[in-house]
Amino acid sequence: QVQLVESGGGLAQPGGSLRLSCAASGFTFSSYALSWARQAPGKGLEWVSGIYSDGSDTYYADSVKGRFTISRDNAKNTVYLQMNSRKPEDTALYYCAKGLLDYWGQGTQVTVSS
Questions:
Q1: Which of 28, 46, 47, 95 matches a 20 to 30 Å C-alpha distance to 37?
Q2: Which of 44-50's residues contact partners 24+ apart within 8 Å by CB, and which partners?
Q3: Is residue 12 over pLDDT 90?
Q4: Which residues pair with 25 in a beta bridge?
């Protein structure tokens, strides 16, 4: 069955860097686009970034453009989200999702606070 397992979250100060990982299994990873989304406390789900199946195209929400970078390693069935210049408003539960958002991981918590 399809599984997506996020990791790499934690507590950190504003301005720093953090890399999230999402390990996938149960489907042909290299055939699907992947996305990251987040849900901040008390707010709705926000799409953050997406990457094409072969990594040739990437997309970002305006709120993270220029600060976050999505990438993938199809040999390792893993997608990454590099978070730089973090802000307190980046605090959220971060999820990765397959393709047309039909499968989701359980999420990893990122807290940005001084």
A1: 28
A2: 46/92, 48/81, 48/94, 49/81
A3: no
A4: 3
What is the model's pLDDT at position 100? Answer: 87
Distances (CA, A) of 9 to 1, 52, 56: 24, 23, 26
Residue count of the chain = 114
Q: Work out the pLDDT band at 91, boundaries 50, 70, 90.
A: very high
Residue 23's pLDDT band (boundaries 50, 70, 90)?
very high
pLDDT at residue 114 above 90? no
62: DSSP letter: T
Q: Which of 111, 109, 62 lies closest to 90, judged by CA?
A: 111
Contacts of 4 (CB under 8 A, 6+ apart): 22, 23, 24, 96, 97, 98, 103, 104, 105
